[in-house]
Write a structure and sequence with these properties.
Length: 123
Amino acid sequence: MINYKVLIADDSAFMRTLLSKIFQHTTGVGEIFQVNNGEEALKAYKVQKPDLVTMDIDMPEMDGIEAAKLIKQYDSKAKIVIVSSSDKKNTRDEAEKIGVFGYIRKPFDRLEIKRIIDDLSKE
């Protein structure tokens, strides 16, 4: 049985808790880690080596786009899904250039989050 490690990076405690609860009830997810900014996401990625990162964009210290770039430089195979209320074209374009695994706009349907794990298992 697969037990993916998931890292949730979001400055909203509510959103971290919500995503955590969804992942806790998703088959295939084992450990879940939470951080509240991009700088912590980069550090946690290097230590925890998660299989999946959900990344908000607008966060203090370091935004999600910059953190995603640095994580991808560290590990080109990193699976990062942007989960953000921002739907600006230039932000989505930047995320695509980085090579993110997906882009989910808040508010989202719980099934969108669960589909990420299904997609991950197909990789």
